[in-house]
Structure formats: C-alpha cells, structure tokens
C-alpha cells in the first residue's frame, strides 16, 4: 500500500470545494497521513481572543487538499476510510460568534435583537485520560469530557464547475459536522469531476449533536485515512458506514428538507441492499431509523439518518469495501 504524508503550508489551504487545483495526485488504495488546521486557522488561542477581531472571512474552515484520485470519473463512488484521528495540539477552542449559532439572531433568521455576547473557551487536552477540560467563565464549574475526535468537513468538488465555500454542507459533502465522521468510519461520496478532488478538515475534539452554538471543540488534527474507488454509481447524498450503522447525511434548509433528503436516500439504499420495493423500504425505515441532528447553524442544516446493522440481515454495501478497509487499516503502523 502506498503511503503519502502531507502537511500543508498556510498558502496551500483550500477554502472551497471546487475551483482549486490538486495538491497531490494519488492512486486508489493509497493511505494518507495528513495534518489539518482548526476552523479558526489557529487564531483563537486564549479566552481573550474574540472571533470578531481574529477571524478574517472567508478564511475559515481551511481544508487539507484537494487530492486528485487517478481513475475517478463522474458517477463513480469515492471511498474514504478513516483509520485514526488524533488531536495535534494540547488544547482545543470553542467560541460564540456574532450572528452565528442556533440560538441567536442570524442573517437568515433576522430579528431586532442584538447578537449574543462573544466568548471564547479553551479546552485543555489530556491525552492520557482522553478527555478535554471544560471551564465555565461565569461560574466555577469544571468538567472533564470524553474526547471524541471527528472531522467536521469532508467532501469532493461539486458538479457543474461550481466552487462552494468550505462552510457549506450539500450533496458533495462539505461542512456536515456529524460526529459519525470518526475513526473506523467509511464515507462514500459521489464523484462529480475527474479525479474527485476531495479534501478534509475542520477537526473537532468533541461535539454535541446539532452543534448548538455553531462551534465544536475545534482543534488541529492528525488524520490517517485510506482512499479507494468503486466503479459503481455514487450516492446522491454522502453515505457513512461503520461497524454498527449505515448512515446518510442530508443537508438543506428548512430542517425538514434535510431530514427528507437523508430519509429518501436511505430508502433507496435499503432497497438496493435487500431487494425491497420503495414502500417496503419506507416502512422498514420508519420502524428502525435513528435521526440525530448534525448541525442546525450553517448555510444548510445537516441531518443524519442511521439504521443499526444489528436489526438487518448481513449485507455487503459497495462490495464489502468497509470491512476490507477495516482489515487493511490494521496493517498501518
């Protein structure tokens, strides 16, 4: 297996999906060892740093990539298996940002109220205990929360020559902010352009479902992943498989349309895996689905539709490539 190490220089970050030349060309079956910067580009480092003074739009959510996958053609399925996600710093950071978040006035939900006050929280990382430390600023509460690393942003170049901000989730993936994008998960994405041109970033050391204030415990991340390609029709919406679940991430506004997108694609997935007609798959999904919110703060909202494998007959999604890559991952040091 080919192994590529890549740590981007600041001038190599991508800020969009699409419209960016590839940083490297790789073959299917390649393992990548990458470094990703946090969503704030490392500018928030203490509780006195505030987003309004430190962030420079649109330079947020820097992406590592894009990578050109040789042989990837529009309509194929790009496969990304996440082997390991490890914090690259001893601290993470979260913040409230003016006019951004699920419980404040925004540009899309306009009111005459002032924005919520800005505040920045620094979370100390305890690698031995695998925790991040929450310290309240208006009281004396301190908590050690379990570290649950994930990637907020994974995606490919969109179709039709579009370039989309790395803040946006959509059919191409992007800023979905789902905790399902963790080590041991395999992500399936539809290839829209030659080479797929995928990138990853926006490491979260942990995040609650829905990402209420719009920011997780953001942090730089060391990422190990394996890239593969399946010459079968790619999914309409990003799909994720792990050892316990099949999942689809739908993104849209309003929130119910994001839910519908994931539900419809899961109906089709169940139908193709088990030979079910549309109504039977719809009925089965109605009785077994789990639907956590991924985020309700971005340009689009993201909703995850999950079905537990334990309730279903064994089936090999995408020719069983998830299990194959899980086994291949054990050979990486």
Describe the model.
It holds the Pfam family FmdA_AmdA. This is Acetamidase. This protein has 333 residues and is mainly β. The protein has a single domain, classed as Sandwich (Jelly Rolls). Helices cover 13% and strands 34% of the residues. It contains 4 helices and 21 strands. The strands form 4 sheets. The chain has a 9-stranded mixed sheet. Helix 2 crosses helix 3 (278-288). The mean pLDDT is 96.
Provide a quick synopsis of the model.
GO terms for molecular function: hydrolase activity, acting on carbon-nitrogen (but not peptide) bonds, in linear amides. This protein is 13% helix and 34% strand.
The second-level CATH architecture is Sandwich
User: Would you report the number of β strands?
Assistant: 21
Radius of gyration: 19 Å
Q: Order of SSEs, N→C?
A: EEEEHEEEEEEEEEEEEEEEHHEEH
Mean pLDDT: 96
* Unreliable stretches: none
- The fraction of residues in strands falls at 25-35%
CATH superfamily: Acetamidase/Formamidase-like domains
> Number of helical segments?
4
- CATH-defined topology: Jelly Rolls
Number of domains: 1
Span of the ends, CA to CA: 12 Å
Shape: globular
- Please bin the fraction of helical residues: 10-25%
Characterize the largest beta sheet: strand count, sense, and whether it forms a barrel. Answer: 9 strands, mixed
Strand order of the largest sheet: 1-4-17-6-15-18-19-21-20
